[in-house]
Design a protein that fits this description.
five-stranded antiparallel sheet, Helix Hairpins, extended, 4 domains, alpha+beta, 13 helices, ibrinogen binding protein from staphylococcus aureus fold
Length: 549
């Protein structure tokens, strides 16, 4: 995780000042819905309000924005800040709010001053543009009062700091007060402004002062090749097996973003696709529960028919005007009373019951068909969410996006004139000495791999009963080791958790078929065998292949 609390931001602020103070703006872009980039010559300052990545830094990435968005805030920023000089970078106390101060000479020769407030506070992160008197000129996010009821940011209103609990400023904290906080078993983060959760482990005032007054100590801690913590603070972090040091915050954060595949374009597209599909999944599950209720209610169908049959056996005794009749229930060996409509004839009463029975019967047939369709669609959506989760770059997400557009799940937000993405190899490959393991990375790749790339005598693998990639094993000799290895690849590209044991089905590819009209990736198969394997890291599987294990 990337750890930035208020104290971290105070050090980041100083670094940004050294890099940007005295420089003039020459370009301003809204890269996407949540990010703005401000160019000072060749230096690009990126302000990200993506909920999962609220951050500001000097980016080294040259990636193109995924959306071309014009907006009022960009118009206002360009109108007032082009060729403006950045004169200062300020922090509001030790809160996660930076204020960028700008000065510009207008067409009349007047010096105009402006501010950009960057609020780095999770899902409520925002960029607010004000004049010198803090009058709001525009904002990136216009929160509805129900989302952020503590304040409003209407144009012309005076900027106010988000509501916060009054705490001790770190620079005002003395040793006596620090020790008192510890003696009361109170968390430092609840008493000291700008102190985040990782500072709660500090036990002495000296250590706290060292962290507060030290220069940027940019480090990334790894465990099993995964980032555990990225920070600019000199923390006593222990849960790691490798650490990488950096000369600056910008160097660290650019490495972090590249390593974690968390560029703003990637994160925004990933969040967008996940959000749309999670909403769809929620809707489908609600639909499925209603269908199941209809099926459950249809269990009364037989009772309706039985009532009709019983009424038919005593119909000769029924006279128009009767509101009920007692009859012997030969299905359950008891006497029952059947309600009648006195305004219609006996035969019409009987027809009414049988019509009701046939209606419920038709409804049940439709409900069973819809249940099957909805379940298949849920499987498709869940598998697509899995592929999104496993994606590591914008290109792979774009392929999934194109698939969803073709199926009318989402609408395209891209300019039609944009150059199409270069198509890469349509599946993943693990190459052994005398075998190949091929895996799909989205539903279209699954279809392509299973029905166009593979041969009928290849072996096909899929995790039983949960979303996973299609796996094709090409080999002249099937061994237990290859079965396990292929099953492990299948387990890795599944919804299962690391370390979890799963059952993987496998069969010859010729035993796999695709029903007419089925969604991408959906198949049926027969004559399968099964093997139980543990989900392990893909890197471990690759190492075993390289080492011939």
């Amino acid at each position: 995780m990337l750890y930035i609390d208020g104290i971290s931001l105070s050090k980041i602020k100083e670094e940004l000042k050294k890099s940007l103070e005295g420089k003039r703006i020459n370009r301003i872009f809204k890269n996407n819905e949540y990010t703005i980039s401000i160019h000072f010559g060749k230096i690009e300052l990126l302000l990200s309000c993506i909920p999962s990545l609220p951050i500001c830094y000097i980016t080294k990435s040259k990636e193109q924005p995924i959306l071309d968005i014009a907006s009022s805030i960009i118009s206002n920023l360009r109108k007032n800040l082009m060729n403006a000089m950045l004169t200062d970078v300020e922090q509001l106390g030790f809160d996660r709010i930076l204020v960028f101060h700008f000065s510009r000479i207008n067409e009349l020769g007047e010096i105009k001053k402006y501010k950009i407030y960057f609020e780095c506070i999770g899902k409520l992160s925002n960029i607010i543009f004000t004049d010198e008197e803090n009058k709001v000129l525009d904002a990136l996010k216009k929160f509805h009062i129900s989302e952020n009821f503590d304040r409003t940011l209407f144009l012309g209103e005076t900027y106010t700091r988000p509501k916060f609990d009054k705490k001790i400023l770190p620079i005002d904290l003395n040793e006596k007060d620090f020790n008192k906080i510890l003696e009361n078993n109170t968390l430092l983060s609840s008493e000291i402004e700008g102190a985040g959760k990782f500072l709660n482990n500090i036990k002495t005032f000296k250590d706290f002062r060292n962290i507060l007054h030290s220069d940027v100590k940019a480090k990334i801690y790894f465990k099993d090749k995964k980032i555990k913590l990225a920070t600019v603070l000199d923390l006593d972090f222990k849960d790691y097996d490798e650490v990488k040091e950096f000369s600056s915050y910008d160097e660290m954060v650019n490495f972090y973003i590249e390593y974690e595949h968390t560029t703003t374009s990637f994160m925004l597209l990933k969040n967008r696709l996940e959000s749309l599909l999670e909403k769809k999944l929620k809707k489908l599950n609600k639909t499925l529960s209603l269908i199941k209720k209809d099926i459950e209610d249809s269990k009364t169908m037989d009772n309706i028919k039985e009532e009709g049959d019983i009424l038919a056996s005593v119909l000769y005794n029924v006279k128009k005007g009767m509101d009920s009749i007692k009859a012997y229930d030969f299905y359950n060996n008891k006497e029952i009373e059947i309600e009648l409509n006195p305004l219609i004839s006996p035969n019409e009463n009987l027809d009414r019951i049988y019509k009701k029975y046939n209606k419920v019967k038709r409804g049940l047939t439709n409900a069973i068909r819809r249940e099957k369709e909805v379940k298949e669609e849920i499987t498709y959506v869940e598998s697509t969410l899995l592929f999104i989760k496993n994606s590591t770059d914008v290109a792979s997400l774009r392929e999934i996006e194109e698939e969803l557009i073709k199926l009318n799940y989402i609408k395209s937000l891209h300019n039609k004139k944009k150059t199409k993405l270069k198509k890469e190899v349509k599946y993943g490959v693990i190459e052994g000495e005398d075998y190949l393991i091929l895996y799909g990375r989205n539903n279209l790749e699954n279809d392509n791999l299973t029905f166009k790339v593979s041969a009928k005598d290849d072996y096909w693998f899929h995790v039983k009963d949960i979303p996973s990639s299609h796996i094709i094993l090409k080999t002249s000799k099937l061994t237990d080791e290859l079965i396990v290895k292929s099953a492990q690849v299948s387990a890795y590209f599944s919804k299962a958790n690391l370390g979890e044991k799963v059952t993987v089905d496998y069969t010859l590819r010729k035993n796999v078929s695709k029903p007419n009209g089925a969604k991408p990736g959906f198949v049926i198969y027969v004559s399968q065998k099964s093997v139980v394997v543990e989900k392990v890291e893909l890197e471990k599987i690759y190492k075993e292949v390289i080492n011939g294990l």
